[in-house]
Design goal:
- The protein is of the alpha+beta class.
- 62% of the residues lie in helices and 14% in strands.
- The chain has a five-stranded mixed sheet with strand order 2-4-5-7-6. Strands 1-3 form a two-stranded antiparallel ribbon.
- The longest helix has 78 residues, at 54-131.
């Protein structure tokens, strides 16, 4: 039986049982109220109007009736609220798990494609080099293309491995002084070499230092630059700007892509989440990079945010404490 059909059956059973429990609670309240009315009626019939303390007995019976009614209403209300609260908790938990399952399924499909594509391209390029005699310029182009795909594969593997280790508490981040100026320039130059046809610029102030883990910060910067390349038209400019704003070191990664709506800005750092509008859904990705980047920045007790670029595009902002 398909998983979606099983979930629908489970939801049907869940709502059926919930309605049954609430109906049973209402029936219990009505039955007790009727029983209370009957008992009080018997008591009323036992007293006689000509008794000297008739009014006192009548008032006591009426008071008992009101007390019992209030007791049933109170108990019924508490049970009802507990049932509704439990039902909402279970519903939200199941809905959250279902959403996570869907995201994981989408992630597995995306990552399968992301893994197969560079492997297939690298294999084809190597087979071409092996079987054909090519001039030096074509060889260089094939080798460069193969290195680009293997770098992409390496980045993907690093993202998956580091994300898993950070979540499970298995990665012990280093705490050393890092020249973020040098790191930003190195990352920028690496992408310039991998994407020679893209206009990637850097405006990095000298001698900016932060305390942290060199590998993690490199992964964070690479993810943001790679993200800007994915979602920007080829002819547009990508700018990496790093400067000091004491007591912080600020890094901006600017692109001139389609931009991100305010609603999407609240979700893009969620694990497995990918923007799904027409302008961006064709871009490659697994929905893991921005989530991992945020974890890395939070690990360094920093902040990451996003704002609109003018006239279009996005600016990712990293704020790290200056060493």
């Amino acid at each position: 039986m398909p998983k979606s059909k099983k979930i629908r059956i489970i939801f049907f059973i869940y709502w059926f049982l919930l309605v049954y429990i609430i109906a049973a609670l209402v029936w219990w309240f009505i039955a007790l109220s009727r029983q209370n009315e009957q008992m009080l009626l018997f008591k009323m019939q036992e007293i006689k109007k000509n008794e000297p303390n008739y009014l006192a007995k009548y008032a006591r019976i009426e008071s008992e009736k009101r007390r019992k009614t209030a007791q049933y209403i109170g108990e019924g209300s508490i049970f009802f609220l507990l049932i509704v609260a439990g039902a909402l908790f279970v519903y939200k938990a199941v809905k959250r798990e279902f959403k996570l399952s869907q995201q994981q399924q989408n992630f597995m499909m995306a990552i399968t494609h992301e893994l197969k594509t560079p492997i297939a391209i690298a294999k084809l390029n190597l087979e071409t080099l092996q079987l054909r005699k090519l001039d030096e310029s074509k060889k260089e182009r094939l080798i460069s293309n193969t290195l680009q795909e293997t770098n992409r594969l390496n980045t993907l593997c690093n993202n998956i491995l580091i994300s898993s280790q950070i979540e499970n508490g298995g990665y012990m981040a280093a705490h050393e002084e890092i020249n973020i100026s040098t790191l930003a320039e190195d990352c920028t130059n690496d992408f310039k070499n991998r994407f020679p046809n893209r206009n990637i610029q850097s405006h990095v102030d000298r001698e900016l230092f932060v305390n942290g883990d060199l590998l993690l910060l490199q992964i964070a910067l690479n993810n943001l630059i790679d993200n800007a390349i994915k979602y920007s038209p080829k002819e547009k400019t990508i700018i990496i700007h790093a400067f000091k704003n004491s007591p912080d070191v600020i890094i901006h990664i600017k692109d001139e892509g389609p931009g991100i709506s305010d609603e999407e800005k609240k979700k893009i750092f969620q694990k497995f989440y990918r923007i799904g509008n027409e302008a961006t859904k064709s871009a490659k990705g697994t929905g893991l990079g921005l989530s991992l980047t945020k974890k890395i920045i939070l690990t360094h007790k920093g902040r990451i945010s996003i704002k609109d670029n003018t006239p279009n595009g996005s600016i990712f902002i990293l704020e790290l404490k200056e060493a």
